[in-house]
Design a protein that fits this description.
Helices cover about 35% and strands about 15% of the residues. By secondary structure, the protein is α/β, with parallel strands linked by helices.
């Protein structure tokens, strides 16, 4: 069974969903330290003038907070500001209404914890894209250890035999530990995803996948998997 272990992110880019589609089980790595000014609570969308705008979820977090414990701060009225920005800049996008309304309803439901919001949004987007991967939260598996050993423990808990890692892990993964545990691992390689019409130029490939959905609708999968609902696994 192929497994990925990745931190939950806020409305991630399309590569995140490509990652999810390439494994049988995706573990949201929510029981590790929260990092500020990172993808956990923010992402980018376009403005009509071409600017890249950060959409951030304000949180109450300490330096030692785990991702799963970070609470969303709803006192700042951020949901209405974000929704207003999206309406003003994407309101005329071809598939705006189809995706905006469920996205809006989820934000307005005021989910208390950041990780729960991130995960709920990611699962909803996977449904839109036709991704059938199973999900579990690391915090539900009660694993121990640090770095490689913690990942290996998670793999063993779920019965995985092939770990698909993000490319940044090349700097710290110790292959000998994985070999000793009898586990295979490989790194995802993000391709040059096809361009599509955005609300402004020049094309920006790494914005939130919400941009792709608003602009291409049901055609979005072909801009991730080149006309295939799921890339052929190696």
């Amino acid at each position: 069974m192929r497994v990925a272990i990745v931190q939950p992110n806020y409305i991630p880019w399309r590569g995140y969903f490509d990652f999810i589609s390439q494994v049988d089980l995706f573990i949201f790595y929510d029981d590790v330290q929260y990092t500020k000014q990172d993808w956990r609570n923010r992402n980018q969308l376009r403005a009509k003038n071409g600017d890249l705008i950060w959409l951030s979820v304000p949180v109450n977090a300490k330096m030692s907070s785990l991702i799963m414990d970070v609470e969303i701060d709803y006192t700042q009225n951020w949901t209405h500001k974000q929704l207003s920005f999206i309406e003003q800049n994407y309101g005329s996008a071809p598939f705006f209404k189809q995706y905006y309304e469920p996205f809006r309803d989820l934000l307005l439901s005021k989910i208390p914890l950041l990780s729960d919001l991130d995960i709920a949004l990611s699962k909803m987007i996977c449904d839109w894209l036709g991704i059938k991967t199973a999900f579990v939260k690391a915090s539900d598996l009660a694993c121990s250890g640090a770095k490689d050993q913690r990942l290996i423990d998670l793999m063993q808990k779920v019965g995985g035999d092939h770990y698909l890692s993000g490319p940044a892990a090349r700097s710290y993964i110790q292959p000998s530990m994985w070999e000793k545990a009898g586990l295979c691992f490989s790194y995802i390689e993000y391709p040059n995803y096809p361009a599509y019409a955005q609300i402004a130029e020049p094309f920006e490939p790494r914005v939130s996948i919400m941009d792709l959905l608003f602009m291409t609708g049901p055609e979005a999968p072909k801009y991730i998997w080149e006309n295939s609902m799921q890339r052929r696994r190696e």
